[in-house]
Structure to design on (211 residues):
């Protein structure tokens, strides 16, 4: 493979703790694009949904998540995949808190005549059947949604819009895969134990980001 967008990281500059088994660590040549995307995602999450609090996300010093996991990402795509990844981490934190059985609102919101479970249902609907069947509309209206779910929908649409401007076909494929992942996550409570490793691994492969 010809490497165009990354450099090898000196193996003496970090401790692999025996986990890399000789795999070379590479880092993207333009880490600034990742930082811009991640910080923009955090700012949009704060603006449209609520404060992110003491959240660090995928950014690190000297190595950030996307820069070393996708070191050969085309430069024009690095900012938006970093934005999407940061949003996915933030959204994943929300998914961890949702009680899928009782759907009690972790946001403390009472919507639609006091039904707290409606808030969680609408957050899940951000990546619901409509996305699976036809993809998200970048110009979608958030009318009728509560503040949190409309904010997530707006960010989701922003991601798709920016991705589609670069590569529409792969943008739709990515967002549908993301929707499938969220629906899978919603199929069971995260705290529910698995009966066996055989049951756990297929779920975890997708949950960890198979797409």
């Amino acid at each position: 493979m010809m490497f165009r967008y990354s450099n090898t990281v000196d193996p003496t500059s970090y401790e692999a703790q025996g986990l890399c088994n000789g795999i070379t660590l590479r880092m993207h040549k333009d880490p600034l694009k990742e930082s811009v995307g991640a910080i923009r995602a955090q700012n949009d999450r704060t603006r449209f949904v609520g404060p992110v609090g003491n959240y660090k996300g995928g950014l690190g010093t000297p190595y950030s998540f996307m820069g070393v996991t996708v070191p050969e990402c085309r430069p024009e795509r690095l900012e938006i995949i970093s934005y999407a990844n940061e949003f996915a981490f933030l959204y994943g934190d929300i998914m961890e808190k949702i009680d899928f059985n009782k759907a009690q609102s972790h946001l403390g919101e009472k919507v639609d005549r006091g039904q707290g479970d409606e808030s969680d249902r609408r957050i899940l609907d951000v990546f619901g059947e409509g996305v699976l069947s036809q993809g998200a509309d970048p110009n979608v209206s958030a009318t009728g949604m509560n503040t949190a779910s409309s904010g997530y929908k707006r960010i989701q649409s922003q991601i798709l819009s920016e991705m589609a401007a670069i590569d529409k076909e792969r943008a739709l494929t990515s967002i549908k895969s993301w929707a499938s992942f969220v629906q899978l996550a919603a199929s069971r409570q995260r705290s529910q134990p698995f009966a066996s490793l055989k049951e756990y691994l297929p779920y975890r492969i997708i949950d960890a980001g198979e797409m």
Notes: Residues 102-116, 132-145 have pLDDT under 50 and may be disordered. The longest strand covers residues 6-8. The helical segments are 31-48, 65-69, 75-97, 117-125, 129-134, 147-185, 197-207. DSSP finds seven helices and two strands in the chain.
